[in-house]
Write a structure and sequence with these properties.
mainly alpha, two-stranded antiparallel sheet, globular, 61% helix, four-stranded mixed sheet
């Protein structure tokens, strides 16, 4: 599968396909079909034009920016703790109180497009279940499509260069930052309770971290001091926020198509609803959020495509392919848990599979070996088998697999961070590769240790044994039935 069709269009849809590169100033022809690399989408009212996006590039996150300025948040400070201290004071900072009110009271139970509050909450829970049902595939997509591919965008990579985030020369430093991103996703997909939930708290912290990055760059304190605000807009502006949100929302579902997994319309809508909800907490302006992701999934992926098409660079990197941000990110996870025997080539092939060969070539991604490709095919197939067996077999097995997968991934991530949970505070460059210190982290919130590892392995082994036994019995029954059919056919023919 090379071409990925966006929205409701099919390979048989009629219409003239226009290469993206031939568009005038990136303006989409109404109703036309546009192709860029391995993607084809139809231009609809959901598509966003460069003129429509231009004002949003000049807007950041005023609420969070005001808090960072007023509280002078800096390295090592827990943004959530700082905000709560002001909220609890009678004469506390008004910007902190305004941010807290906005996040704690806004949109948390607001019905979406005619839904009741109960229906909306149900969709949120279903969306979290969708994530854990396909967690192995989704985590793979977030790493190899959303992050490795998405952060090749000039404006996003410009921010990364100024901060060193995910582009450090140290593989350990990059890996630690990826673990922090993973713990944020885990928190969001496990607990979205307003105010007290881990997802809510992590979203507030990440939002304030973004504001600190923005402030540092605008003050000319970035590492390279070459961020081009005239061309790219404000650092981490509203278009950037909406694009990154889409890479966490839409890109994993596109990746499922690449890997030939069938995800239902209801599952897509539920997963979209979860990330739209999180997007509000992360500071995406409600007007833009509703414009891009507030309708059907088909409209949301068309809108995201118009953002993504313009976000990727127009020229290939002119440096050594092993020095691109994409390759460095992939190299940082090679040989790390949970795939401790993986090579860089394996992760490069994974990235090429999800992005598509044309886009992968455009990003100067090299090829892995035939062993890397074979290993990847086996992992995709075995993941498909686990998911499909869970659909077919008893619900309790599927639920146990989902919960256990979440527990295993969380244990691995927290262990990798030094058995602490990140509070997403700003860290100085000299500390990037180090484990989290007490003042920039909190208790892990789960049991760690050798006994926990043994128990988890036993539970996982029991699940696999049960699946193996059932598949063996099913296979035996099929073989017997086939044998009996051919025996009957032979006897019938030779009467």
């Amino acid at each position: 599968m090379t071409i990925l069709y966006i929205g409701n269009i099919k390979p048989t849809s009629e219409g003239v396909i226009i290469p993206y590169e031939s568009l005038e100033n990136g303006k989409f022809p109404p109703g036309g079909f546009v192709k860029r690399w391995d993607y084809i989408g139809q231009v609809t009212s959901a598509s966003l034009s460069p003129d429509e996006l231009a004002p949003w590039r000049r807007k950041a996150d005023p609420l969070a920016d005001s808090v960072v300025e007023a509280l002078d948040l800096g390295p090592g400070r827990d943004g959530l703790k700082a905000v709560l201290e002001e909220v609890e004071k009678e004469d506390g900072d008004e910007s902190a109180k305004a941010l807290w009110r906005s996040m704690s009271e806004g949109r948390n139970d607001v019905p979406n497009k005619g839904q009741s509050a109960e229906e909306y909450r149900q969709l949120l829970m279903e969306g979290q279940d969708v994530f854990w049902r396909y967690s192995a595939q989704f985590f793979g997509a977030l790493m190899h499509f959303s992050l490795a591919g998405g952060f090749s965008s000039p404006n996003l990579s410009g921010v990364l260069r100024e901060t060193g985030y995910l582009t450090s020369a140290s593989k350990d430093a990059t890996y630690k930052r990826l673990l922090e991103t993973t713990i944020f996703v885990i928190d969001a997909m496990k607990d979205l309770t307003p105010v007290t939930g881990r997802g809510f708290k992590s979203a507030l912290r990440v939002r304030l971290l973004h504001a600190q990055v923005r402030r540092k760059i605008l003050l000319g304190k970035g590492r390279e001091k070459c961020y081009d605000s005239e061309t790219w807009g404000l650092p981490i502006n509203q278009v950037d926020l909406a694009t990154v949100l889409g890479s966490f929302m839409i890109a994993p579902l596109w990746s499922m198509r690449r890997m030939r997994f069938k995800v239902s319309e209801r599952e897509c809508l539920a997963y979209q609803t979860v990330w739209t909800h999180i997007g509000f907490w992360l500071g995406v302006d409600p007007v833009l959020l509703d414009r891009v992701y507030g309708s059907s999934f088909s409209s949301a992926e068309i809108a995201f495509a118009s953002l993504a098409f313009s976000a990727f660079p127009t020229t290939r990197p002119d440096c050594d392919p092993t020095q691109t941000p994409t390759y460095k990110m992939l190299a940082s996870v090679a040989g790390r848990p949970p795939r401790t025997h993986s090579t860089v080539g394996y992760h490069v092939e994974y990235c090429r599979l999800l992005l598509g060969p044309l886009l992968a070539d455009h990003l100067a991604l090299p090829r892995g070996t035939w062993r890397d490709r074979l290993s990847l095919k086996f992992d995709v197939w075995s993941g498909w088998l686990l998911v499909e067996f869970g659909r077919w077999w008893r619900k309790g097995w599927q639920r146990e697999r989902m919960e256990l997968t979440g527990e295993i991934i969380e244990l691995l991530v927290v262990w990798g961070l030094g058995e602490r949970r990140s509070v997403f505070s700003w860290r100085e460059e000299k500390d990037w590769a180090e484990k989290l210190r007490v003042e920039e982290s909190e208790e892990p919130g789960l049991k760690m240790g050798k006994e926990v590892g043994i128990r988890v392995r036993q539970r996982w082994r029991a699940l696999l044994i049960e699946m193996g036994v059932i598949l063996a019995i099913a296979g035996f029954v099929v073989v017997v039935d086939v044998y009996q059919f051919f025996l009957w056919w032979y006897l019938f023919k030779h009467k």
